[in-house]
C-alpha cells in the first residue's frame, strides 16, 4: 500500500486530473501510479476513463487487463484484450491472456499465447507459471518428447490427459454440498489420506455415477473433483471410443484405461455413459454387448490393484438405461444424484456467474426466486443474455455500465427452463413403477415423495 508521501503525490495527481480530465498522458500516469501502489479499484477506474479517451489503444487495454488479473477478474481481463491478437500490442498482453486462460481452466489455449509473449520479450519468462502450464522451463521440444511417453497408442482413442483445471475446485461449484461430500469420501479422501483408508482395507479407486437432469453441472463437478485433488483429468466422449470396425471400440476402451493408469492419480470421466454401458438385454447386436463386457472388465482390472489411483466418474441423464452390472461393488457402486439447483443454490450460481462482471447492487435472491425450475445451464443463459444487453448499452454510452437486478430480471422474463421438468416427469415413472430395490430413493424428495 502507499505510504504517506506516496498518498500525497497521488492526491496531487488526482487533483491535476480533476482540473484537466481530458489530459490523456496525465490520466495514464495517475492510473499507472495507482497500479504500482496496489490501489487496484482506483487504477481500474482511471484506466477505464483513459480508454474512453483513447478507445482501442492496446497499451491501455493491457494495463486494464493487468488490473483485472490482479483482482482475480479473469474473464474481464480476457474481455479487455479481446481485440489484441497474438503478436499485436505489448508482449505483456500475451502473458496476461495466458495467465487468465489458465485461471479459467483453458491450459491448452494458454500455452501458445505464453510462448509467443516470451519469444517477443524474454524478460517475461516465468518458470513457476511454466510449471502450471505443464511445460518444462527448459525447452518446448524436450516437453514434447516427454509427453510422447504418456500418449495413447496411435490406433487408440484421441483423448488427451489434461492437467487439472487450474482454479476449478468445489469452491467453484455452487450448492450441492451433499454431492460434494459424497465425492470427497468416495474419490478424494482415499488419495489424500491413504494411511487412514488402508487401516480399514480401503484403496483409492472405484467409480461414481453422477446422474440428473441435463445442464445441472455433472461435467463441471467432475472437473472440480480433479482440481480439488490436483489429479490428471481425462474426459472421454462417445467419439473417442465407438468405432465402426469390430474390435476397435474395445481396443479404444482398453487404451483409455491404460492411459489413465499411467497417469495416476487420474480422474477418468465418461460423459453420456449410458451409450457405452447400456443394458445388454436391450441390445440386439453381439458387438454392442461386447463393448459393455469390455467396459466391465476394465473397471474390474486384470490385477487387484490395476485401477488403484484411477478415479472413475461417469455422467448420464438416463441412469435407468445403464446395465445393472455396473452397480456392483468396485464398479459404479455409488450413484450420486445431481439435482437441479434449489433457491439458495441458484442465488450462489448467479453470484459465481456474475463475479467478473461490473455490478450494481444485485439482489440475487430475488432473481433466484424468479428462476424456479432453471438448471445451471439455464442460469448461465440468463446471465449471458443480460450481459449482452448491458454491453450494447455500454457501447452506446461509451463506458462500462454495471449490471443490475433489473437487467437480470429482464433476461429471466424472456427465458424458459430447458429440460428439468421433462426429466423429472420421466424420473417419476421410474420411481413409481421400477424402484423395488430402492435405487432411486434419492429422487423421492424432489418428486414430492418420502424416503423409505
TrEMBL record:
Pfam families: AAA. One of its GO terms (molecular function) is ATP hydrolysis activity. Residues 204-342 form the AAA+ ATPase domain. The keyword NADP does not apply. InterPro entries: AAA+_ATPase, AAA_ATPase_domain, ATPase_AAA_core, ATPase_AAA_CS, P-loop_NTPase, TPR-like_helical_dom_sf. Keywords: ATP-binding, Coiled coil, Nucleotide-binding. PANTHER family: AAA-FAMILY ATPASE (PTHR23077), NUCLEAR VALOSIN-CONTAINING PROTEIN-LIKE (PTHR23077:SF171). Belongs to the AAA ATPase family. This is AAA family ATPase.
Amino acid at each position: 500500500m502507499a505510504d504517506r508521501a506516496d498518498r500525497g503525490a497521488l492526491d496531487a495527481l488526482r487533483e491535476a486530473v480533476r482540473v484537466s480530465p481530458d489530459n490523456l498522458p496525465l490520466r495514464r500516469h495517475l492510473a499507472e501510479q495507482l497500479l504500482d501502489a496496489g490501489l487496484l479499484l482506483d487504477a481500474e477506474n482511471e484506466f477505464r476513463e483513459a480508454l474512453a479517451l483513447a478507445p482501442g489503444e492496446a497499451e491501455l487495454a493491457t494495463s486494464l487487463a493487468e488490473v483485472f488479473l490482479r483482482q482475480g477478474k479473469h474473464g474481464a481481463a480476457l474481455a479487455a484484450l479481446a481485440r489484441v491478437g497474438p503478436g499485436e500490442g505489448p508482449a505483456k498482453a500475451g502473458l496476461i491472456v495466458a495467465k487468465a486462460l489458465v485461471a479459467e481452466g483453458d491450459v491448452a489455449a494458454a500455452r501458445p499465447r505464453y510462448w509467443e509473449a516470451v519469444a517477443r520479450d524474454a524478460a517475461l519468462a516465468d518458470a513457476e507459471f511454466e510449471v502450471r502450464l505443464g511445460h518444462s522451463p527448459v525447452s518446448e521440444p524436450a516437453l514434447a518428447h516427454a509427453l510422447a511417453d504418456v500418449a495413447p497408442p496411435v490406433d487408440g482413442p484421441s483423448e488427451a490427459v489434461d492437467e487439472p483445471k487450474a482454479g476449478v475446485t468445489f469452491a467453484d461449484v455452487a450448492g450441492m454440498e451433499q454431492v460434494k461430500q459424497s465425492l470427497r469420501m468416495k474419490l478424494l479422501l482415499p488419495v489424500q489420506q491413504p494411511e487412514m483408508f488402508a487401516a480399514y482395507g480401503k484403496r483409492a479407486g472405484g467409480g461414481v455415477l453422477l446422474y440428473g437432469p441435463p445442464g445441472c453441472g455433472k461435467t463441471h463437478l467432475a472437473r472440480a473433483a480433479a482440481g480439488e485433488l490436483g489429479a490428471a483429468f481425462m474426459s472421454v466422449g462417445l467419439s473417442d471410443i465407438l468405432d465402426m470396425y469390430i474390435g476397435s471400440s474395445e481396443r479404444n476402451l482398453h487404451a483409455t484405461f491404460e492411459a489413465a493408469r499411467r497417469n495416476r492419480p487420474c480422474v477418468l470421466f465418461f460423459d453420456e455413459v449410458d451409450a457405452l454401458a447400456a443394458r445388454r438385454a436391450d441390445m440386439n447386436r453381439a458387438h454392442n454387448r461386447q463393448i459393455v463386457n469390455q467396459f466391465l472388465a476394465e473397471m474390474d482390472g486384470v490385477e487387484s490393484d490395476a485401477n488403484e489411483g484411477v478415479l472413475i466418474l461417469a455422467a448420464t441423464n438416463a441412469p435407468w438405461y445403464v446395465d445393472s452390472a455396473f452397480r456392483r461393488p468396485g464398479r459404479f457402486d455409488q450413484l450420486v444424484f445431481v439435482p437441479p439447483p434449489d433457491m439458495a443454490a441458484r442465488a450462489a450460481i448467479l453470484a459465481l456467474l456474475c463475479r467478473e462482471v461490473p455490478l450494481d447492487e444485485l439482489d440475487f435472491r430475488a432473481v433466484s426466486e424468479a428462476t424456479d425450475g432453471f438448471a445451471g445451464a439455464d442460469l448461465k443463459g440468463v446471465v449471458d443474455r443480460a450481459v449482452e444487453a448491458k454491453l450494447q448499452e455500454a457501447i452506446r454510452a461509451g463506458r462500462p455500465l454495471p449490471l443490475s437486478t433489473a437487467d437480470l430480471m429482464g433476461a429471466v422474463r424472456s427465458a424458459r427452463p430447458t429440460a428439468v421438468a421433462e426429466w423429472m416427469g420421466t424420473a417419476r415413472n421410474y420411481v413409481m413403477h421400477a424402484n423395488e430395490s430402492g435405487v432411486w430413493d434419492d429422487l423421492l424428495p424432489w418428486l414430492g415423495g418420502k424416503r423409505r
